[in-house]
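User: Hi! I'm working on a homework problem where we have to compare a predicted structure to a textbook description. Could you give me the structure for the chain below?
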Amino acid sequence: MSSVVFYRGLEDEDAEALNNRGHRSAGHRARARHSAGVFDHEPAGGEPAAGRSSKRVAAWVLAGLLLVVAVVGLAKWWQAAQARAAEAAVHHAPSIKTVTVDRPARVASSSIVLPATVRPWQGARLYARVSGYLSAWHKDLGEQVRAGEVLAEIETPELDRELAQAEALAREAEAAAVQARVEQQEAIADLQVAQAQLARAKADSELAASLVVRREKLMVMHAVSQEELETHQKQAEARSADLRAAESDLVRRRTNLSTRDAIISSREATAKSRQANVERLKELQAFKHIVAPFDGVITRRTAETGMLVTAGSDALFAVEDMNRVRVQAAVPQAYSAEATPGIAATVRVPEQGSRVATGTITRIARSVEAASRTMLAEVELDNASGQFQPGSYAKMTIDVHSGASSWTIPANTLQMRVEGPHVVVVDGQNLLDVRPVSLGRDLGNRVVVDGIHGDERLVVNPTDDLVSGLHVEVRAAADPVSIVRR
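Assistant: Happy to help. Predicted structure tokens:
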């Protein structure tokens, strides 16, 4: 009994082994006593043999119960260990993600509404070109004017006196030029006289030389005297000197004529300069009358009778041609390549309700402003009815056509990474493919991209843990949950 109680606290399997060893040891000791002739005799008055047998049976029963309890506990422990292993296997098994997908849509055409400004067909601010006093004005604000019609008159006494002085100087220069031309004629006559004198001197020199030759021949025959010969030789030398003098005089006369020609050119140039100044002052006198440069409407008048007018200081009138108008809008850079002349456009002024005017883009700037990243586009419209007022705010709607290969995707399918924008594509085997794309125009809830073919299934709201090759399950598009973990 004591051995059984001693092993009760151990594990059932180990206790059973120890009990078995205990029983074997007790049997061994009994056989040893029997072989040695030692027998257990019950003492007198001790416990009978039947009582000891019942106690032994009870011990064996208790040992069997303990064994049963140990086996049951071991079975429960084994089941718990199996459950923990299964749970650990479940936790370590890879989870399958469920994603929501959406489809690309082809971009056929789109319209954009841009703020615009109505401009007149042509406009001009009229300034005074001469200084003076405004003597009268003839057209008031809002009146129709015709090209060349006088709008105001300016008195310019100083300009008038300056013109008279310039005319007098021009006449003086012209007279000096006439005098130079007369002196030129005199120089020409003197030159002709000098030429005649040169011819006479040349003839006399030749005659004197001929006489000397004949006298020398006669002198050989002793027909003339030596004195006569010497006299003719001196006469020949004198005639040669007269010839040289005539030639020098001719050169002087020619030089004098060239000087007269230069004087004439100078005086004629002076006359032309002074006459040009006269013409300039006459042109300025014409600016005493301020006239309309084209047909239009007076949109501004600051001219008042008697006011001092300084040339180029302040505009006296503003004239605008409103028969046609130019509606100008700044097209963003994203649409500048598609906003070409001929694209349909509609113009509407907010104050006129649903009344719109249709037209086409007439001309574009063909250059993007660096400050605003916009390009100026202009629509030309007829305004004979006076529908548009220059300077008004308007809304211009233009149709922007995209290429056949343009696709838009929902904005919530884009994933911005360090490498750039990406989309996550689910293929036919429900495997993911992280693909880079190039962004185009932003249409609000959709974005034009390049890099897709149009038949892809795109993951909505992709997270950073989605990688290429990952197997997923596709959720119906109506499910608001985009990514769910099992």
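For your comparison, note the following. The two ends are 58 Å apart (CA to CA). The chain has six helices and 23 strands. Good luck with the assignment!
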